[in-house]
From TrEMBL:
It catalyses: UDP-N-acetyl-alpha-D-muramoyl-L-alanyl-D-glutamate + meso-2,6-diaminopimelate + ATP = UDP-N-acetyl-alpha-D-muramoyl-L-alanyl-gamma-D-glutamyl-meso-2,6-diaminopimelate + ADP + phosphate + H(+). InterPro entries: Folylpolyglutamate_synth_CS, Mur-like_cat_sf, Mur_ligase_C, Mur_ligase_C_dom_sf, Mur_ligase_cen, Mur_ligase_N, MurE/MurF_N, UDP-N-AcMur-Glu-dNH2Pim_ligase. Carboxylation is probably crucial for Mg(2+) binding and, consequently, for the gamma-phosphate positioning of ATP. One of its GO terms (molecular function) is UDP-N-acetylmuramoylalanyl-D-glutamate-2,6-diaminopimelate ligase activity. It comes from Natronincola ferrireducens. Meso-2,6-diaminopimelate binds at R379, D403, N404, P405, R406, G455, E459. This is UDP-N-acetylmuramoyl-L-alanyl-D-glutamate--2,6-diaminopimelate ligase. Residues 23-94 form the Mur ligase N-terminal catalytic domain. A motif (Meso-diaminopimelate recognition motif) lies at residues 403-406. Catalyzes the addition of meso-diaminopimelic acid to the nucleotide precursor UDP-N-acetylmuramoyl-L-alanyl-D-glutamate (UMAG) in the biosynthesis of bacterial cell-wall peptidoglycan. Residues 330-457 form the Mur ligase C-terminal domain.
Amino acid sequence: MLLKELLQGLEIKKISGRQEISIENIVYDSRKVTKNSLFICIKGFKTDGHLYIRDAIEKGASAILVEEEVNLGGATVVEIENTRKSMAIIANRFYGEPSKSLDLIGVTGTNGKTSTTYMIKKILETSGKKTGLVGTISNWIGDVKIETDRTTPESLDLQKLFKRMLQENVDCCVMEVSSHSLALDRVEECQFKVGVFTNLTPEHLDFHATLEDYKNAKKKLFYKTVLCNIINIDDEVGKTIYQELRRSTTPMLTYSIKEKADIIAENIVLSIKTVTFDLITPKYKEKVEINIPGIFTVYNALAAIAVCYSMDIGANHIVEGLRSIKGVAGRLEPIEEFADFAVIVDYAHTPDALENVLKSIKKFAKNKLITVFGCGGDRDQTKRPIMGEISGSYSDLTIITSDNPRTENPMEIIAMVEDGIRKTLGKYDIIENRREAIRLALKYAEKGDIILIAGKGHETYQIINDNVFEFDDRKVAVEVAKEEGLI
Ligand SMILES: CC(=O)N[C@H]1[C@@H](OP(=O)(O)OP(=O)(O)OC[C@H]2O[C@@H](n3ccc(=O)[nH]c3=O)[C@H](O)[C@@H]2O)O[C@H](CO)[C@@H](O)[C@@H]1O[C@H](C)C(=O)N[C@@H](C)C(=O)N[C@H](CCC(=O)O)C(=O)O
Ligand SMILES: Nc1ncnc2c1ncn2[C@@H]1O[C@H](COP(=O)(O)OP(=O)(O)OP(=O)(O)O)[C@@H](O)[C@H]1O
Ligand SMILES: N[C@H](CCC[C@H](N)C(=O)O)C(=O)O
Ligand SMILES: [Mg+2]
C-alpha cells in the first residue's frame, strides 16, 4: 500500500520525503523492521521508539512516523500528534478494516473476562459458527492455538490477527478488552458488534490514577459497539454505566441474579464441581448446567448467554454449548491426582476474585481451607494488604509466597501482604519460594481439606527480575506430591 494512502485523513504536522512509496510492512519495534517498512515511534513507559530510528533505517525502514521533530535523511519522516492512536488507524487501513467483516464481541471488566469469552466461543461453535478468540491465556482461530503474551494485543498485532481470522473463514471473534488496551488505544478502530461489562473492583491502580479513570477506560468500549451492550447490573459500577448508556443509541441488555433484568438466573444450585440454574430471558426459559463451580460462574454464564441471545443464537445451542464446557484452564481447575484432599489452582489475582473464590470453595471444605498465594511485582501495590486480609479471614491457614515478583524484592511484596493478614485471626506462614510453599501446604493437608493455589492459574512461568523460569502450579503440585510420597 502507498504511504500516501495509509496517511489519508490523518492530521499531519510535517512531512519530509516522498509519500508515493510502497509500504510492505508496518512495525512499532525497530527489532522487527524489514525492507520497505513504516516504523512507528512510540514513547513508551520504559523507553522511547524515537531512540531507534537510525537502527530502523539501517534495517530497511523507508518511512518513519514520529511525534517529535527529527532531522535525518534516508527515509520519509512524517510528524503527527499521537503515534499510538495513529498506529491504530493505519493498521486498520493496512489490513483492510477486518473487524467490519467479523462479528466482533468485546468483553471488559475486572474479573471474568477470560472465563466469559471461553463460554461465548463454545456456544457460538455449538451453533456452527467458526470463532476466533483473543485473550489472556492464548489466542485461537477455531481450534488452532496461537501463543500470546498480552491480554489485548497492540493495535497493529490485533488488526493483523483479525485479517488472518478472515482469511481462515472465521465468522465471529470474541475478545477480552483490557483497560490498558482501552487507555492505550489498542482497540481504536475496532468495530464491535457487542460489548460486555462484567464488573469493576479496584485493580491496576498503578496504571490508572484513580478508580474513576479505570472505570472511564472500561466505559470506552460501549461507545464502539453497534448491536448491543450487555451490562451486569448487580455490580455497583455496572449500574452507573447502565444509567449513562441509556442516552446511547446502541441497544442494551442487562443481566442479574438479584434484580429485575433482561436475562436472569433463578433457583441457582451450587455444588463443588458444577452450577445449575433456571435461565429466564424475554423470549424463553431454560435449565442451564455448567461444569465450573462458583457463583461467579453464574454471572459469567449470564453474560455469555446475553451475548448469544443478542446475536439470535438459538436457546438449544446456548444450553448445549454451556453444558459441553469442561472448564477453563487455571480457573478453579481441580488437580485430579489428589484423592484425600482437594487441590485447586485458580487465577484470582485481585481482592474481589480472591474473596469470591474463597467464599465459593469454603462451603465445600469438610475440613481446613489452606491458601497459597502471593502478589505480582511491578503491579498495583494497594491490593496486597487487602488480599492478605481476605485470605486471613476465609482460610484456616495461608502460606504467603511469591507470585511473579518481577523486579521487586519478593520479601517486600510479602511484607505488604502480611500487613493485611495480621489484621485477622487467620494463621499464616511465609515461604518465599513458591515450590516450597506448595510443598508445605501439601504436607499440612489432611483428609477433607481444600488447598487453593491462587494467582497464577494457567501461567506456565514465573518472572523473577527479567528472567522467565518454567513454573506451572498444576505441574508443581503433582511433582512435589510425588516427591513427598503423597500420591
Ligand atoms: C504498560 C503497558 O501496557 N506497556 C506496554 C507498552 O509498552 P510501552 O509502550 O511502554 O513500550 P516500551 O517498552 O517503553 O517501548 C517503547 C517503544 O519502543 C520500541 N522499541 C523498544 C526497544 C527497541 O530496541 N526498539 C524499539 O523500537 C517498543 O517496541 C515500543 O514501541 O507496549 C508494549 C508493546 O506492545 C507492551 O509490551 C507493554 O506491555 C507491558 C510489557 C505490560 O506489562 N503490559 C501489561 C500491564 C498489560 O498491558 N496488561 C493488560 C492486561 C491487564 C489485565 O488482564 O487485567 C493486557 O492487555 O495485557
Ligand atoms: N465474574 C467474576 N467475578 C468475580 N471473580 C471472578 C469472576 N469470574 C472469575 N472470577 C475469578 O477471577 C479469576 C480470573 O478470572 P478470569 O481469568 O476469567 O478474569 P479476567 O477478567 O480475564 O482476568 P485478567 O484481567 O487477568 O485477564 C478467576 O480465576 C476467578 O477466581
Ligand atoms: N493481567 C494481570 C495478570 C496478573 C497475574 C499475576 N500472576 C501477576 O503476575 O501479577 C496483570 O498483568 O496485572
Ligand atoms: Mg483475562
